[in-house]
Amino acid sequence: MSEDKVQEKAQEMTTQSQNSSGTDNRESELLHEVMQKKERLNSAIERADTLQSKYDDLQKQVANEQESQKIKEMESKGEYDKIMAEMTSKLETSEKKSKAWDEFESNRRELLLERLPEDDRATYDGLSLEKLEVHVDKFNSKPNPANVDNSTPNATGGYETSLEWAVNDPAGYEKAKKGTGVKSKFGNIFSPRGND
């Protein structure tokens, strides 16, 4: 009879493990399916990014070709003055942008270097603006230590008076007043000789 019970329990455990492994298999299948979908989505995103960059390149090429075609038409008509005027205006615009950028970069570099200690400024002056910004951010983002009360502890357990201490923290007061009488660190405010 005991053998029958053992066999029944073994069969029950096998059935339970098969049921739980069936659940585990289903979960792993779902996980595998989700991972495949994620991979397909990532590859689709990569393809979209590639297509977008190709599209942008083609638009630039078309714009350049249109510009060169326009210049050729103007040359064929003998409109060299208009060509020169357009090129001059583009050059002036580019120079203004370049000067503005150089001024911004110079001012930004000075501000960043001012945030560094005087000794380190010469060392980091040669870094590119991006690297200098990263370094200054790391240098200045060090956490400041928390403010800590460094005052010496007083004889009243942090309270203004011993009476306030005894009222607000009786257990702490009782613990502190126990000692060797007058030689006790805190003593007893109600019995200064420490006899009680």
Helix fraction by DSSP (H/I, runs of at least 4) = over 70%
Assign the structural class, choosing from mainly alpha, mainly beta, alpha/beta, alpha+beta, or little secondary structure: mainly alpha
Mean pLDDT: 79
C-alpha geometry: flat
Question: How many β-strand stretches?
Answer: 0
What multimeric state do the chains show? single chain
Main sheet: strands, sense, barrel: none
Q: Assess the beta-strand content as a share of residues.
A: under 5%
N/C terminus separation: 77 Å
How are helices and strands ordered from N to C?
HHHHHH
**How many domains is the backbone divided into?**
3
pLDDT < 50 stretches: none
Our count of helices gives: 6
Rg from alpha-carbon coordinates: 41 Å
What features would you describe in this structure?
The protein is built from 6 helices and no strands. With 196 residues, it is mainly alpha-helical. It folds into 3 domains: 1-78; 91-141, no CATH class; 156-196, no CATH class. It starts with a helix and ends in a 19-residue tail after the last helix.
Q: Care to give the gist of this entry?
A:
The protein is mainly α. The protein is 74% helix and 0% strand. The protein is built from six helices and no strands.
Name its key features.
6 helices, single chain, flat, mainly alpha, 196 residues
Topology:
Blueprint: H1 2-77, H2 80-114, H3 118-124, H4 129-140, H5 162-168, H6 170-177
Helix pairs in contact: 2-4, 5-6
